[in-house]
Amino acid sequence: MSTPGHDTLSWTLLRPPRLRTLDDDGERHASWLELFFDLVFVVAIAQLAHELVDDHSLRGFAVFAALFLPVFIAWQGFTIYADRFDTDDAVFRLAIFAAMLAIAALAVQVPDVAHGDSTGFVTAYVVLRLLMVGLYLRSYRHVPSARPLIARYATGYSLGSAVWLTSLALAAPGRYVLWGLALAWEYSLPILFRRFHATIPVSTSHVPERFALFTIIVLGETIVAVALGTAGSDWALEAAVAGALGFVAAAALWWIYFGTGAGMEMRPTTRAILVFTHFHTPVLAALTAVSAGVALAIEQAPGHLDDGARWALCGGAAAYLACLTVAQRALVRGVSTRKMVARAAAILALVALALAGADLRTVAFVGVTSAILLALVVFELWAYRQAQAAGRLAAAPG
Question: What's the rounded Cα separation, in Å, for the pair 56 and 298?
Answer without folding.
Answer: 15
